[in-house]
Amino acid sequence: MSTEENPAAEPAPVIDVQGDGRWMSQHNRFVQECKDAEPDVLFVGDSMVQLMQQYEVWREVFSPLHALNFGIGGDTTCNVLWRLQNGELENIRPRVVVLWVGTNNHEHTADQVAGGILAIAKLVLSRLPKSKMIVLGLLPRGEFPNPLREKNAAVNNLLRASLPQLGPVQFIDVGGSFVHSDGAISSRDMFDFLHLTASAYRTISMTLHELLLQMLEEMPQERRALLV
Amino acid sequence: MSADSNPAASPSPCQDIQGDGRWMTLHNRFVSDSKGKEPDVLFVGDSLVQLLHEFEVWRKLFSPLHALNFGVSGDATQHVLWRLINGELDYISPKVVVVWVGTNNHGNTPEQICGGIMAIVSVIHQKLPHAHTLVLGLLPRGKSPNPLRERNASVNALVQAEVASLSHVSFLDVDPGFIHSDGSILHQDMYDYLHLTQQAYQKVCQPLYERIKSLLDKQAP
Fold first, then answer.
1. What are the SGNH hydrolase-type esterase domain coordinates in residue numbering (chain A) (predicted)?
2. Would B153 be classed as within a structural domain?
């Protein structure tokens, strides 16, 4: 599906309807962080990414990898695309970019959401030709089986098939352990059946951390002087 | 202002537009969870309440007080009101109910939001005549000065005045001074200029804990 016909691949900022301009404040802060920091790993996405930084696991596992967190709660693929096109990839050369977005794309079909995620991956790889990517699959949501679980699973299947063709992109689905045999998700894993608890983040972080270490070790460290 | 003319005081459930029924699931879970428990303290409100449960500070300060957490992200006063009328208070008798809601009441005036909070206070008193309700002040929000900060401050002033004459309700301003001299709120305190980091929750929760403890001590038989 070309960008012209996929609304999920149309970059769009979040318009401030509430009145305190928080989305733009966060974006501007991330753009500034790109000027101040030299991350080896960049996390970008929605609240699944943003919330991770609020738990201990971030400080213990990801900070030591010199990771930056550009997650914003509520973001769709359109919002992430806009942010990355408008400064959040400037001045930095992360060796790995971790992308986790798509569960908030309520207006779009699974095909469109997958297309939006692919568009983001293509953008990142074209702007950072020496970087690798990890794309996380959308997690199941809701306490019991529901249409959004099917949609998210469909997005994941599409990504699994099409991401490898883009190049150095790994797709990982960390949602497997959350749905029990009776189809239920526990509030001990997702306190509101969407967002992860500290212990659930620990579980997924182990897989993610291992993969990151592998990717970082495979790549020779660029000397900083060469990046200027 | 009557409930009919105030949308913030008119109980309404959240409609499931996303498709996974999470709001109702959470409400049902709160009702059924409450059947087995005997909490001394109940926290009810929006995401500022809900997220508090996910951090260490909850386990350290509030679990030992036998507290339950009925926070739902995104809730406005009319949603909390609906939940309290529809089962969340039916099976428990906490001594203290902590109410923290109002910042999501977009489109309502400070008077309407205050009306919504007072409607909640009233329902709690009807269902739990022996409980003390502690209403927490709305925090400032946004990186820089903006209309929502003014709105929230107005709500706080109105609520504080209304509860002054009531013996079963008190108001607590839990803002430890999030706004700096240049008018900014730091992301180290509110990572998205609305929700609290762990460090910010520590600053908010210590005085809150002290107040709850003293209320519980007063109520001890």
1. 43-202
2. yes
Q: What's the ipTM?
A: 0.94
Host domain of residue B72: 8-219
User: Residues with Cβ < 8 Å from B118, sequence gap 6 or more?
Assistant: B9, B159, B162
**Comparing C-alpha atoms, which of A215, A189, A193 is closest to residue A203?**
A189
In total, how many domains does chain B have?
1
Question: Which residues of B fall within a CB distance of 8 Å from A192?
Answer: 22, 26, 50, 72-73
Tens of pLDDT along chain B (221 residues)? 555 699 999 999 999 989 999 999 999 999 999 998 999 999 999 999 999 999 999 999 999 999 999 999 999 999 999 999 999 999 999 999 999 999 999 999 999 999 999 999 999 999 999 999 999 999 999 999 999 999 999 999 999 999 999 999 999 999 999 999 999 999 999 999 999 999 999 999 999 999 999 999 987 65
Beta pairing partners, B140 = none
CATH of the domain at B184: 3.40.50.1110
Would you name the residues of A annotated as active-site residues? 47, 192, 195
For chain A, the residue count is 228
Contact A20 B19 (CB under 8 A): no
- Calculate the dihedral angle through the C-alpha atoms of B115, B119, B157, A20, rounding to the nearest 10 degrees: -70
Other CB atoms within 10 A of residue B82 CB: 18
Who contacts B158 (Cβ-Cβ below 8 Å, separation ≥6)? B110, B111, B114
Return the residue of A nearest to B197 by Cα: A54
Residue B2 lies in a domain: no
CA dist B213 and B40 (Å) reads 11
Which overall architecture, per CATH, does domain A7-14+23-216 show?
A: 3-Layer(aba) Sandwich (3.40)
- B121 half-sphere exposure, CB direction, 13 A CA radius: 24
What is the rounded CA–CA span in Å between residue B20 and residue B35?
25
Q: Return the ∠ at Cα B138 (arms to B129 and B83), rounded to 5°.
A: 45
What is the 8-class DSSP label of residue A179?
B
H/E stretch holding B69 reads: strand B67-71
d(CA A4, CA A13): 18
What are the residue boundaries of the structural domains of chain A, listed by start?
A: 7-14+23-216
